[in-house]
Amino acid sequence: MRVTASTIIIMTIGMVCAGIERFQAKRGMRPCTLVVLILGFSWVNAALARDEPYRVLLLHSYGTSLPITADWYEGIVRGFSSALDVEVAIDTEAPDLARFGNMDAASYADMQQLNWLLDFYRKNYQGRKPHLIMSTDVPALRFLLVHGEELFPGVPIVFVDADRDFVAAQKLPPNVTGVTGFLDITGTLELIQHVHPDTQRVAVIVGSSPSDKAMERVAQQAFESFAGRLEFVWLRGMPVDELIKAVNTLPEKTVALYLVQFEDRAGHQYVPRAILQTFSVAAKVPVYGLWDTLLQHGIVGGRLATVEEDGYRAAKLAVRVLRGEAPADLPVVDRLSNPPIFDGVELARWSIKQKRLPADSRIRNHPASTWDEHRAEILVTVAVITVQALMIAALMLSRRRLRYAQDALHDENDLRREAEMIAARMRGRLARFSKEHSLGTLATTLAHEINQPLIAIQNYAQAARRRLQTNVEAAPKLAELVAKIEGQAERAGAITQHVRALVNHDEPDLRPLTLAPILQDVIRMMETESEARECRIAFEPVDDLPPVLADALQIQLVLVNLLQNALYSVCDSEGGDRLISVDARPLDDGEVQVSVTDRGEGILRERVKDLFEPLYSGRRAGMGMGLTICRDIIDTHGGRIWYDPNPEGGAIFRFTLRKAG
Asked: What b-and-e string marks burial along 64-82, b requiring 16 or more CB atoms within 10 Å of the CB?
């Protein structure tokens, strides 16, 4: 399947309609794509109705070897390509019609060859008449005006660059229109005088062929208006070697004007652009021309005929004809003047500043800059310099960071030495503080532990005094009280010895003991204090309680501490049960657990973690060493001590001892 311009148009219209619908949907507008579709399809209706492209016959005046023929063709193709709704198939004929000269029958140079050409066209296009014919320059148009109706009756003709004066002298048929050409010789001479105000003479270069001579006649007419202002030196029909010598010896204040040269006087034929390129290199003066196709081949510039542009404009006219417009309704496009166009390389060669050019000048073929000529080398150099600069910057940055690091390390070393000196002083102070703390701990422990038997002694002494005051015959009871006082005094001494052993880290005197009597002794010792605080301590011994491995006095110290804390807790609470329970029971893991339970105020949850820390006390007058001492004693016995909250309110302190044996 061949994708034609019509297919592309349909796809384009579809995309446009889809875009319109999305836009209208966003804006909340009513859909109107139907109108667009109707307009679009009406525009391409003619293209869709055709099954094949339009056949266009392109008839050149010169052979295909001439660059100007290729320039016309390129412009024409570009013009047709710009019309998406018109698809054409171009047949090109280039019989070099310029060699036949004037088309008048009496002046045919070779009637036999012309007749052969006419017969060829009759046979070749019989039954497949083109839809449109395009011609380039005057010879092709002249041929069509004479023989077109015979060969291609009714076919519309669009010409390109036919001389404006020639077209004006003709009575064009209604099927003929086009774009005229204009060789602005006068404008080019004025441009030369504008750019080179000191010009005195113009060297005119022209060939010897009939076309060359026709161009010479046109130029002579244009030169008449410059009589007295410029001197014209003719370099006619010179062979290339002679021409090179001539342009190489032109005097100062001279400018060369190249008309055209198809042939020299010796009969040698040339491609006009090729011979220009040959002699312009040797020219000692700037060379100007008349066609833009000569740019980049030796001319500085001029008021140039734009060959490719004229082909494009003629093709646009042809598209209108193919769409249905009548050639008679399309007026011939005349160019009143040609634009000033220059070659940038030649301007640089002859040191012509752009400020000397007309304001509307066009410059083509700008000279290659250093960037254009050495882009790769420049990029590599810039890359290398950039990399080196980055490396230098990185090294400088690294050096700066290293210097900062060295300074910081030096400062850190100074701070470290100072910190070490401070640490040494602090270690000395800490050692002294530790010694003082140890002494304080010892004093606190002695005061705390001796306080218990002293209180008992005081209580027994007060009881004895009351007995003496109330009952004279109380000797036995007094003896009992005195015995208790003696026992407590001995206990105070034993406590002192045990505390000293504890402070000196002596091992406890662990022996198999029956735990119940030890607990009962402590409870009896605490009776006086518990009665004074209106509290009751309850203990129910268990029959199968096994003996434990313990130091009796140290276990008594633990139990005294726990009972005192319980008494303070119960007394501080308002109302409630003033019962303190002591419980001892064996465990399955070879231990005996002792519990002291009260129903006092209990212990706040956030303080539980600090209970066994030194110098921590829950009471205002407490020393904060009781539970710490208890923990140390139980640890030396290989047991554990901990706190549990009493579900009924209050606290439960438990510790374990190892079973004996």
From this structure: eebbbbebbbebbbebbee
